[in-house]
Amino acid sequence: MATIIQTEHLKYAYPADEGEKRTFALRGVDLRIEKGSFVVILGHNGSGKSTLAKTFNGVLLPVGGKVYVEGMDTLDEQLLLAIRQRVGMVFQNPDNQIVANVVEEDVAFAPENLGIPSEEIRRRVDEALRAVGMEEFVRHAPHLLSGGQKQRIAIAGVIAMEPECIVLDEATAMLDPVGRREVLSTIHRLNRDKGITVVLITHHMNEAEEADRVLVMDDGRLVMDGAPREVFTHVDALRSMGLTVPDTVDLLDRLRRDGLDVPLDALRVEACVDAVFTALKKN
Questions:
Q1: Do both 233 and 281 map to the same domain?
Q2: Closest residue by Cα to residue 266 from 258, 275, 279, 253
Q3: Which of 11, 10, 43, 55 is CA-nearest to residue 216?
């Protein structure tokens, strides 16, 4: 499978006050993200996961190592526009991304700034709103929408640029459970139906269950990388990093500690129920 994002020995340090030593937020990260995949990046606060996300389209630039987007080096200023057209970012607070007083104008903002013709912008706006299930709100005021609806409008604004990859940096963190479900349903549909690569940075373990791949960051380093069923079996290691595990895995781990022979990789509720039922029958 083709690679869309690649990092090589990636390092990043935020600027320090005069006389103070810089603290590295990323300490040599090597990874490849394949086109069309759905990748979740987990980590406690300060682990480097959001910093890593911001390097994927040049919001932050490496102080060491490299980030490539389809082979384009983010350190090459002449390539930044092309890179950002391929990798769109959705941030935690949708209010920080909404810039217009009418939904369709907000979604059209980025294509207009790219100099795209009016007819093409109209097509993109309509398709983007349809993709996130918000076409009926085309002439609504964004500030009157719910948190989940605002975030879907923010995603539509990114889709209108027709990126190959969408990076969502804690985009569900400020939402209630209904809003989280709306946004997750939207991005899974975009990944499945349009083949858009999705990179989701989150601290909600249950959001990682249906990912193709889970990356775990700790102290600026990539410490785990694998399928959800594989990563979440490392319960003690995850907890030692200040992370939880999905509810199903937590239940199975408790049962194992009480002596019931159940697997830890039954992530889905149905699989978890089957695993517990089978173990009880054996007993």
A1: no
A2: 275
A3: 43
Q: 220 with 261, same domain?
A: no
Specify whether 78 is located in the same domain as 179. Answer: yes
Find the DSSP H helices in the chain. 49-55, 80-86, 103-113, 118-131, 147-159, 177-194, 228-231, 235-240, 247-257, 269-282
Helix (H, G, I), strand (E, B) or coil at 180: helix
Write the burial class of residue 214 (CB in 10 Å: 0-12 exposed, 13-18 middle, 19+ buried): buried
Find all residues with CB under 8 Å of 5, minimum gap 6, and list them: 31, 32, 33, 56, 67, 68, 69, 87, 165, 197, 199
Q: Look at residue 6 and give its three-state secondary structure.
A: strand
- In this structure, how many other beta carbons lie within 10 angstroms of the beta carbon of residue 81? 11
Domain that holds residue 254: 246-283
Asked whether the beta carbons of 265 and 248 are under 8 A apart, the reply is no
Report pLDDT digits (tens) over 127-179: 999 888 899 999 999 999 999 899 999 999 998 988 999 999 988 888 888 88
Do residues 7 and 55 lie in contact, with contact meaning Cβ atoms separated by under 8 Å? yes
Q: How many distinct structural domains can be found in the chain? A: 2
The two tokens of residue 232 are 């979440």
Of 217, 231, 172, 247, nearest to 45 by C-alpha is 217
What CATH code is carried by the domain that includes residue 194?
3.40.50.300
For the chain, the maximum distance between any two Cα atoms, rounded to a whole number of angstroms, is 69
pTM comes to 0.90
Which is nearest to 154 in space by CA: 108, 102, 97, 197?
Answer: 97
pLDDT tens per residue, range 230-271:
999 999 999 999 999 999 999 999 999 999 999 999 999 999
Q: Cβ(89)–Cβ(169) under 8 Å?
A: yes
